[in-house]
Amino acid sequence: MKIGALASSLRKPLPETLNAFAEMGLQGVQIGVTREFLGYSEEKLGEIRELCRKNNLEISALCGDLGGDPFHVENECMERAEILCRIVDIACQLGTKVITTHIGVVPEDPADPVYPLMVKSIGHAAEYAASKGVTLAIETGPEKAEVLRSFLETVDSKGLGVNLDPANLRMVSCVDPVHAVEVLGRWIVHTHAKDGVNLYPGSAAARYGMRNPDGSKREFREEPARFKEVPLGQGQVPWDAYLNALRKVGFDGFLTIERECGDDPAGDIRLAVNFLREKLGEA
């Protein structure tokens, strides 16, 4: 497996981030696609790709999260699907084959009115991705592994996969990441290396939020889950068992470090790099 990091985790301009990641000895970088990216010219995207090449960094994936829960909403879901198709084009221009994204909470019950909207819109984007040799990787967290697997099987597209985030599973949904790998193994194309602690095992769906097909906010009776993200190795992710589970399902891609909080992002990323190298036997 290879070690990379999410560019936004360092909280610095991209050129400075790429230089720092190269100095840390990282093999890859995941780049977040902002709305500004959608208007970039081929020349501008070429400059980004060349900057990564000069720093010997593979673009492990793009992060295609643009916020909101549009895949739940009838008059928004196809518009967001088309935006994902545009991000697929950007991925091709940047030379990467994976786009990670949160699609919103997948309902446990396929009879839920937002379920067919999600199947239709995500399926549309996934088929376009497949036609370009790209995979849309749904990030784990809001739902149990079995619910996500059922959704993947329902959409049934070669362009749809999983970005396995063990911390989201453990700290939000209280799901064992090892079990999630066993359930979702054949769909995993990218992972996030993050850690966390669950503080209250409430509702993950209430924590992430949902909207109804008409756009109104869905109300929940359950209390939302509470959690805290912590530096790698200091949380509830069972790293040895988790990495072994990834090996067993044949995953040999990127462990992409993600750090969304903390006062010393550079220090936390270095700590994570050293932690993963030790776990992978590279220290």
Explain how this protein is built:
The chain is of the alpha/beta class. It has a single domain (2-279), classed as TIM Barrel (Alpha-Beta Barrel). Helix content is 41%, strand content 18%. It has helices at residues 14-23, 42-54, 77-94, 114-131, 145-155, 166-173, 177-184, 204-208, 239-248, 265-279, and strands at 2-6, 28-32, 58-63, 98-101, 135-139, 160-164, 188-193, 195-200, 226-230, 254-257. An eight-stranded parallel beta barrel has the order 1-2-3-4-5-6-7-10, surrounded by five helices. Strand 3 (58-63), helix 3 and strand 4 form a beta-alpha-beta unit. The radius of gyration is 18 Å and the shape is globular. The two termini are 14 Å apart.
